[in-house]
Write a structure and sequence with these properties.
8-stranded mixed β-sheet, alpha+beta, binds zinc ion, globular, binds O-methyl-L-tyrosine, single chain
Amino acid sequence: MTQNSQVTYLKDYQVPSFIIETTDLDIRIGDEYTSVVARLKVRRNSASSEPSSELVLQGSKDIKLQEVMMNGLILDKSNYDLEGSVLSIHQCPEAFELTTECLIQPQLNASLEGLYKSGGMYCTQCEAEGFRNITYYLDRPDALSVFTTRISAPKVSYPILLSNGNPVEQGDLDNGEHFAVWHDPFPKPAYLFAMVAGNLVRQDDVFTTVSGRKVDLQIFVEAHNSHKCDHALESLKRSMLWDEQVYGREYDLDLFMIVAVDDFNMGAMENKGLNIFNSDCVLADPATSSDAMFERIEGIVAHEYFHNWSGNRVTCRDWFQLSLKEGFTVYRDSQYTADTYSAAVKRIDDVTLLRTHQFAEDAGPMAHPIRPASYIEINNFYSVTVYEKGAEVVGMIHTLLGDALFRKGSDLYFGRHDGQAVTTDDFVAAMSDASGIDLSQFKHWYSQAGTPTLAITDAYDATNNEYRLTVGQSTPATAECQKKLPFHLPLRMALLDTNGLEMPLTLRDDDSVQGDNLLLGNSCVLNITQAQQTFVFEGVMEQPTPSLLRGFSAPVKLDYAYTQEQLLFLASKDQDGFCRWEACQRLLIEATELAMSAMNQSSHYQLGDSLVTMLRASLVDETLDPAMVAKLVQLPSEAYLAETQTTVDVDLIHTGREAMRLAIATALESELLACYNRCHDIGLFSQTGKAIGQRALKNTCLSYLNALDSVQYQGQYQTIARDQYALQANMTDVGAALHILIGQNNSELAAPLLAEFYQRWQGDAQVVCQWFAMQCGANRPGLLKQVQDLLDHDAFDIRNPNKVRSVVGSFIRSAINFHAVDGSGYAFVGDMILKLDNFNPMIAAGLAKPLGRFKRHTPQRQALMQQQLRRLSEAQLSKDVFEVVSRALDSANV
Ligand code: 0A1
Ligand code: ZN
């Protein structure tokens, strides 16, 4: 496996030798070929450390170069070289105009990078390096240029022609063609270029900015989706207002467009003024989309909009800096959701995602710092680490600086670097300069991978009324760094008295305490900077219960030996919503571990009374936010449970968790039923926070109750689920009922329901994907055959990433099936990777990542996973899959 292994290193970064001041594109869409004429105004870059007269442009092997002109004269072949995908122009003067004419075939492009055809429309995806599939260019994020784009196409098939910026001109041509010219006044890198040509309908709105400018908001979709745009438009307006109010960021063009596209590798893309969205991440209505999808769409619309400043106005110098825009923008969209809905619930969701998926990445062969030091294929680093851990790192800066200085820092960052392509160091420098806080040690978060563990011990001295907290940190070795330097991190904490009230805190000024420890009334943020530190609190009048890592103030594993009593106390008394939930989770995990060992010894599992009392208290308390109650009583997922185990036995986790579900349902049947009935609102559909929370809670209760049906009951709760399904009130309730019913390992029950559901929704691609996902991700053994059969279903299309994700992605998430001990799940995924890699390497590589994480599985499974990886390594692979597979195989030898 030696192919495709060229590595790009951060340390090799050099400023570009040339600057492209303006880029004029003339794109003519034709049936067989699309012609792309690029007229570039180029000059040498005086800031280049390696001045050169050779202009090196990136392209792709699929481009047919027709002609190269300099200053209007056709260049002879001796003046340039075309080697593989690289076009080098020799002996360039100081300043010149370069024109290339190329032919491409977007209709054959199934990688969905560059210009491609999705259904009947042409669209683009240029991040990270897709622009080079359109024409030869300086395809790097620090090459900023002012773009003017002319598009022409047959008018009947492609009445809508869009690109970045503002429309300048449009008109009809001969032969039924028409054209449109767009100009974007903001210099941008090629990755933010976009164009669309299609037959789309438009939904309009307007937003008046804080300075009184009117911005037209337009969403373009296929006609049959026109009723699904309202939520995205409302979300967009809320986001625009929020960014003005919270970050002082105003929108800068007169037009903001969103286009929905069915075939898309990711969620959405922030192209300047012309965001392109995966249909599934923008279109919603209550009949076809669950509450969770509504929330996700709002978050993604906000995310892409926020990129206009964090990403577009200030962009990345190179792709190692990806977290500069992604970490910051995820942080901003999380803040937006927290401010708009429930902050505690949003924090719980974010932490769950981070601990389930990012911690797993950090512990596996693809572990990388949020600013990686090298890559083979940058697409592999659009990762939970760069995005979610990156957001946590920005959040820690916010916690260390406090609200006012953080805002001062972000103002300085945007002001200082507007129109530039910069680094994460520049971001940290702005935060540090604005606040006067030294963040030099903090920067280790950007260069060191791995999840630190905070080991905390404490001692109370009743004679001197002193409480000592000793905090140690350690981080496991990862491939890029064996010995980690200590991180600087904020530990938010409080001390609770016997009534659960926060005690006033006085920290003794001790030599071992470095930096400023922010005392915020009765809760404080400790600056953790050393491998081991002790903090002494004075005037502590009674033995306190520590409430540690409040709000999950740092992306670490907390190791503090809480007793069961302490956890029960925190679960009922802590005013920090996150810590309260965390205490419940710890208790549920401990109980599930007991259930797992009971199952392992084929003995009966008995749920402890105190846990029952705790869960009951949440279920019956009508004053609590129902969304929060749903979180409090939900069992940790199998994936998160796996994350907490030293050796992962997926079957035992599954049976142990199922035993817990049954035990909880048995002990709390009447409370669960009462709670279900209380929350089951059959009145008018509403999308208030309360109504959404009630649906979440009632469906959690229904899922528990249905665990009872498999044993002593005669389908009583199944009937409730069937009735809820039959009511067809909204997709949240319908989907939850169906999920519960098809999870019951009873094909006589599931088959007619699934057939009915498909019959009803076969015309809606989004719902069909949900239908695939429900079946392929069902949490019961023996799914593979059904999943393989679904690959032959008329509605399945291997070229559509959403369909692949709902079938193969869902199957991988069903751990007992993916990890079937006969290796059939691994072999199936291996087959799919090889098929997909022929045309869509990015999607193929995404599926290969879970195969690489074999380390903590049972020895038999490890061997089977490695066997698949070796099989893959013997094939001719894309560099995307090659990187994932080779890193995984290398990790087997460590
Ligand atoms: N910048 C986008 C994510 C994105 C990245 C790559 C893509 O295609 C290869 C598409 C989208 C975001 O963060 O939303
Ligand atoms: Zn993003």
